Amino acid sequence: MVSEKIINLVNEQITKEQYAAQLYLSMSAWFYAQDLEGIGNYFRVQSKEELMHADKMFDYVNDVGGKIILNEVPKPPHEFDNAQEIFEKALDHERLVTKSIFNIVKTANEEGDFSTTSFLQWFINEQVEEESSASTLVSKIKMVKDNPSALYLFDQELAQRVFVPAAGN
Ligand code: FEO
């Protein structure tokens, strides 16, 4: 039995994942506008991953007999000063998401809600990966700085990313 409090937190998390999808899509658009389509691709794939996260939570609420309540997704920013700022904002955002998921796990632990803690284990592992990737990209964009050849190569590298749906999706 999953409490209403947990259902509410997971519903709120669905909105946070949807917001992350919007944020990354907006970041993607910024890079496409600069003709950096590889980096644009990276963020576009990231946006799809966030929608998949929201989808997993949607299924969970339904599976445990909760009521799915969708909230308004805030408008993402669309003005950015430079590429480094975007990567730093993406890392900050992942840290916020991690904190939010930890909060649900903490509440589930307090309630002895093993099904929710088990469900969220996948997300805890995912956040480790996401923070690690985001942090690496911040380091790389700092190395690139204003070097056009390095930026070209970085863009090529990120063009390789493809969306891979998680098992069960
Ligand atoms: Fe769904 Fe990037 O956290």
Automatic annotation (TrEMBL):
The keyword Secreted does not apply. It catalyses: 4 Fe(2+) + O2 + 6 H2O = 4 iron(III) oxide-hydroxide + 12 H(+). GO terms for biological process: intracellular iron ion homeostasis; iron ion transport. The keyword Cytoplasm applies. Its EC number is 1.16.3.2. It is found in: Cytoplasm. GO terms for molecular function: ferric iron binding; ferrous iron binding; ferroxidase activity; identical protein binding. It is an enzyme of class 1 (oxidoreductase). Its main location: cytoplasm. May alleviate iron toxicity in the presence of oxygen. Belongs to the ferritin family. Prokaryotic subfamily. This is Ferritin. It comes from Epilithonimonas xixisoli.
